[in-house]
Amino acid sequence: MTTPDPSGILSPAAQELMQRGAEGSAFTQWIGTRLRRFEPGKVEIEIDLRPNMTQHHGQAHGAIIGYLADTVSAWAAASLAGDVVTAEYKLNFLAPARGETLWARGEVLRAGKRQVVVRADVYVTQDGTDTLVAVALATIAPVGKAPKTTPEASTAQESP
C-alpha cells in the first residue's frame, strides 16, 4: 500500500516542474526554494528566511518577496502551459515580512494559448502564524509545449 500524497509534490507533473524550475536555476537553488504543494493550476513554494535576505529594518527584502511572487506565478502557469516566461507582474506590499519562513501560493485565474494570468499571495510564518505580506497579479507567456496532463488536470480553466 502506498502512502497518500495530499500535497501533490510527489506526482510526475510536480517532479517535472521542479526539474525545469529549480534544478535549472542557480538562483533558485541558492535561495533554497522548496515545492510545498502542487496541483495543476495551483502551486505553493517556500523558503527559509535567512539574515542575508533581509533589508536594513530586519524584514525580507522586497526583491526576495518579488522573487517568490514571480516564481510561484510562473510555476503555476507552467503546470498547465509547459515552458513559460514572465511577461509582467504587479506587486503590492501589505505588511513587513519578519519570520522564519516565506511561502507563496500561485493560482491560475485564466489560461489561454498566448498568456496565462496568475494571482500570487506571499506569506511569512512567524511562531506558527501566517501573515499575508504581498499580493501580485502576473501575466505569464507560454514558450513551449504544454505538459502531459492527467484526465483530472484537463478540467483546469482554459480559454482559446
Largest sheet: 6 strands, antiparallel
Structural class: alpha+beta
Strand order of the largest sheet: 1-2-4-5-6-3
**Strand portion, in percent?**
35-45%
Distance between termini? 41 Å
> Which parts are unreliable, with pLDDT below 50 for 5 consecutive residues or more?
150-160
**Silhouette:** globular
Gyration radius, in Å: 15 Å
Using DSSP, what is the number of strands? 6
**Percent range for helical residues?**
10-25%
Series of secondary-structure elements, N-terminal to C-terminal:
HHEEHEEEE
The number of distinct helices, counting runs of at least 4 residues, comes to 3
Mean pLDDT: 87
Write the SSE topology.
Layout (H helix, E strand, L loop, with lengths): L11 H10 L4 H6 L2 E6 L2 E7 L13 H20 L2 E10 L7 E11 L4 E11 L2 E14 L18
Antiparallel strand pairs: 1-2, 2-4, 3-6, 4-5, 5-6
Helix pairs in contact: 1-3
Any overview of this molecule?
- The chain is α+β, with helices and mostly antiparallel strands.
- Helix content is 22%, strand content 37%.
- It has 3 helices and 6 strands, in the order ααββαββββ.
- It has helices at residues 12-21, 26-31, 62-81; strands at residues 34-39, 42-48, 84-93, 101-111, 116-126, 129-142.
- A 6-stranded antiparallel β-sheet has the order 1-2-4-5-6-3, with helices on one face.
- Helix 1 (12-21) crosses helix 3 (62-81).
- It is globular.
- The model is unreliable at 150-160 (pLDDT under 50).
